[in-house]
Amino acid sequence: MTTTSPESAAAAAGETNDPIHIRRLELSDHERGFVALLSQLSTCPDLTASEFATRFAELAAQGDDHVILVAEDTSAPERRILATGCLFVERKFLRGGGKAGHVEDVVVDAAARGRGLGLRIVRRLVEIARDAGCYKVILDCTPELRAYYAKCGFVEKGVQMAVYF
Amino acid sequence: MTTTSPESAAAAAGETNDPIHIRRLELSDHERGFVALLSQLSTCPDLTASEFATRFAELAAQGDDHVILVAEDTSAPERRILATGCLFVERKFLRGGGKAGHVEDVVVDAAARGRGLGLRIVRRLVEIARDAGCYKVILDCTPELRAYYAKCGFVEKGVQMAVYF
């Protein structure tokens, strides 16, 4: 994927001064604030390195059916993760044995908002879903974020219902 | 699961006259109208036996992380599938490495509506999600179905956004 991504194309064209690197989650991102970033979205106690590695391996085993992208700030010594978003692919019987993409857990660090990092990640996730043959990509959000996701081509489709245990 | 399900409890209590059997999808359900039932929900061209078997195997490989329930009418000679619903479990990093249940593709045959089959399936899927340790179960629906899912304990949480390719 990397060789055909917009970032790679930009790099090939010499536009290499963008310090933000959008890439797939790596095991070492546990040390770059990935879990702390998620805590800005939802309840998210820290995970031990072992717990993180276990979940990372479970998700990596799903291959391209589960993609977590992160935006890394390569200009900072600690190379913090500033934004993330997830796509997973659901295989169905309907639509001729079709696939639906689900975008989840999109969050941008409070200090890095307004720079378009979330939009870059979501747009890339939509591209990945399309390239994987999904017939749609869906996500759930608060009503206030309708306009934000509209910038990535999303339109309102229904209501999200939930049961919390 | 079967030994502790409400259906089993009912059977143990002698209430065995219910011709509707709620169970997991089986390969042979391709011949019992499962795909035709899904076509009442969305675009759903028929699948060959081979295509159906391939997708069935892919989903079965996910074990208890992907459950499709069906309501089979055991009183009819052809034992048609009258309703179905799906649950898949998404593993996350947030919530302490938590799991979220997603309910998808709930449909009841037009001729069998009003008998509570969909509610029985959705309630069972919610039980399965809770037993699997999910911290929530979510689904997307049209606004008209809010009251229907409220009967299963769901409350409105947000809006669903979609991109169709």
Write a structural description.
The structure is a homodimer of 165-residue chains. Chain A is an alpha+beta fold and 165 residues long. The first copy, chain A, has a single domain (20-151), classed as Gcn5-related N-acetyltransferase (GNAT) (Aminopeptidase), CATH 3.40.630.30. Chain A has six helices and six strands, in the order H-E-H-H-E-E-H-E-H-E-H-E. The first copy, chain A, has helices at residues 6-12, 34-38, 49-60, 94-97, 117-131, 146-150; strands at residues 20-24, 66-73, 81-91, 99-108, 136-141, 155-164. Chain A has a five-stranded mixed sheet with strand order 1-2-3-4-5. In chain A, strand 2 and strand 3 (81-91) form a beta hairpin. The longest helix of chain A is centred in the C-terminal third of the chain and has 15 residues, at 117-131. The N and C termini of chain A lie far apart (38 Å). The model of chain A has no long low-confidence stretch (mean pLDDT 92). At the A-B interface, helix 2, helix 3, strand 3, helix 4 and strand 4 of A face helix 2, helix 3, strand 3, helix 4 and strand 4 of B. Strand 5 (136-141) of chain A pairs antiparallel with strand 6 (155-164) of chain B.
